[in-house]
Amino acid sequence: MSTGMEERYRETTQPTLSNFLVGIADIYARDLPDSSGGVASRMSGLLVISDPETRQSREETVIEGSIVTIGADRYCVTRIEEGKHSPGWLSLRKL
Model pTM? Predict the structure, then answer.
């Protein structure tokens, strides 16, 4: 993905971003703080970021506006939608 481009990823997929596998799961509303610390119900998702070379992984719970570092690149979560009768999805923009 080129800088500035935005792509949509469906829940339960595992795209490769910046040479890392990124699992997308658990899209639903959670009580989470925003950047100022205010807690409210927010649509969120879980990213499982795995380095295929070292086999190490980490999990990050994200909301719209979250900035996530994957490999040497940063991505902004621009949108999260819960699925009604199918998996949900989220959009990432490479910064």
Answer: 0.87
